[in-house]
């Protein structure tokens, strides 16, 4: 009788295929580009600029060429082949190295930017052209961020070109990142105006409605007043109205830069999102705590301002600095992006973003948006759950034929795109019928048990 072997030691029924030589060539260009950028960080002054631009050129050419080789030669579609077998997408060695590198970059960017001088200085010419001032670490970050969205957006356009919804949605996040998050703020600086991001507003861009932020904007005349008004209207008027009609997808999947990076650069890791009920409990407890903290902080700062500092004194600055460090830098940057290869692409959006929490409450209780399901057609393949980056086990809803109305859902539509049977559909219907009777009974039962 043959000896029993542990399941983990068994070979895959279909072993991971070898990477073709042509694909390796494109990936080698990406690796050489990253190597050139690493060399730039320690290169002497005469070599750093050629090495920097050579690195970006090789990286861009390799990424676009690889995207075309991988997704552009065959029919478009959602492919799950070997995601859990490759070291880069299954929390293997490659994923850990990538995560450590991303995390390290963010840590240096936020707290030791002097070590990035060799990467910053080659951008002086571009910064002078766009902003009329030398580059700094935030211009470097914005340039890298935008390049990542554009390059990986090209990958998404090739991969999902069979879906009109995905094409338009991807083009939208690329447009808003390039035009409104990179070009427009730079042009405003060149015109001696405040560096303002029209696609970010309270509670995500919290300081735009802090007393100090409002006062700084109002010092810039009519344009500053317009910016303050824009922030107020977008936060408290446009956001509820647009969410009522379209759900939170109008922002999280079409406009927001955080979501744009997650949907493009983070797409290879979307299946890593934790779908356990315990993860959902952590999500609810953390994200609404963050929202509550920024609401309380904003209210206290304004009250302190009205009282001439008598309420908090110097503590008012500590409140904003604490939030900026813990949430604005550590959570949204270091963890939110650095942990893509380990925890999935929407860690920040799911667990920490106050804007996502705000939009989620509106979507859950007031919106017309829902994802309808046809349980009779579901074959339980699990493709929908696998691509959900927000940790929703979509298959459970599809099997029961129940509409999906979840505060976390960002309406990316990949569950519908991945479904081979057309079971899932994104709809903006009347509020009547959002819940089926079976779902109402189950929800009421759970409420009583809780």
Automatic annotation (TrEMBL):
Transmembrane recorded as keyword: yes
Domain 4Fe-4S ferredoxin-type: residue ranges: 369-397, 401-429
One of the record's GO molecular function terms: metal ion binding
Metal-binding found in the keyword field: yes
Keyword entries, A-Z: 4Fe-4S, Electron transport, Iron, Iron-sulfur, Membrane, Metal-binding, Transmembrane, Transmembrane helix, Transport
One Gene Ontology cellular component annotation held by this UniProt entry: plasma membrane
Residues annotated as transmembrane: 25-45, 51-71, 92-112, 138-158, 170-191, 223-246, 285-303, 323-343
Signal peptide feature range: none
PANTHER family: FERREDOXIN-TYPE PROTEIN NAPH
Name by which UniProt lists this protein: 4Fe-4S ferredoxin
Species of the source: Hymenobacter edaphi
């Amino acid at each position: 009788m043959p000896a029993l072997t542990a399941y983990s030691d068994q070979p895959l029924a279909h072993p991971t295929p070898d990477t073709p030589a042509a694909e390796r060539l494109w990936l080698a260009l990406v690796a050489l580009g990253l190597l050139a950028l690493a060399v730039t960080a320690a290169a002497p002054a005469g070599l750093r600029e050629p090495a920097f631009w050579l690195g970006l050129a090789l990286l861009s050419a390799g990424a676009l060429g690889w995207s075309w080789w991988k997704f552009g030669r065959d029919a478009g579609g959602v492919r799950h082949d070997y995601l859990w077998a490759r070291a880069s997408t299954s929390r293997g060695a490659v994923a850990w190295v990538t995560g450590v590198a991303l995390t390290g970059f963010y840590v240096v960017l936020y707290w030791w930017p002097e070590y990035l001088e060799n990467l910053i200085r080659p951008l002086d010419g571009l910064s002078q052209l766009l902003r009329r001032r030398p580059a700094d670490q935030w211009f470097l970050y914005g340039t890298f961020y935008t390049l990542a969205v554009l390059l990986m957006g090209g990958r998404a356009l090739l991969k999902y070109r069979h879906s009109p919804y995905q094409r338009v949605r991807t083009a939208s996040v690329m447009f808003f990142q390039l035009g409104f998050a990179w070009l427009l703020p730079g042009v405003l600086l060149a015109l001696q105006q405040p560096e303002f991001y029209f696609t970010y507003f309270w509670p995500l861009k919290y300081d735009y409605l802090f007393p100090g932020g409002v006062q700084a904007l109002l010092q810039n005349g009519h344009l500053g007043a317009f910016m303050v008004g824009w922030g107020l209207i977008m936060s408290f008027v446009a956001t509820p109205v647009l969410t009522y009609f379209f759900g939170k997808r109008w922002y999280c999947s079409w406009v927001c830069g955080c979501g744009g990076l997650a949907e493009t650069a983070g797409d290879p890791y979307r299946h890593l999102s934790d779908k356990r009920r315990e993860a959902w409990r952590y999500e609810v407890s953390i994200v609404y705590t963050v929202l509550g903290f920024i609401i309380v902080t904003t209210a206290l700062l304004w009250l302190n301002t009205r009282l001439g500092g008598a309420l908090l004194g110097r503590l008012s600055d500590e409140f904003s600095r604490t939030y900026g460090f813990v949430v604005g830098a550590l959570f949204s940057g270091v963890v939110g992006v650095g942990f893509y290869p380990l925890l999935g692409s929407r860690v920040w959006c799911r667990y920490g973003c106050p804007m996502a929490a705000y939009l989620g409450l509106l979507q859950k209780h007031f919106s017309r948006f829902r994802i309808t399901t046809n349980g009779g057609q579901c074959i339980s393949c699990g493709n929908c759950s696998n691509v959900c980056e927000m940790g929703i086990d979509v298959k459970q809803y599809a099997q029961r034929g129940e509409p999906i109305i979840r505060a976390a859902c960002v309406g990316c539509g990949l569950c519908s795109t991945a479904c081979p049977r057309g079971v899932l559909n994104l709809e903006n219907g009347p509020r009547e019928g959002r819940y089926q009777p079976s779902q109402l009974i189950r929800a009421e039962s759970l409420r009583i048990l809780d």
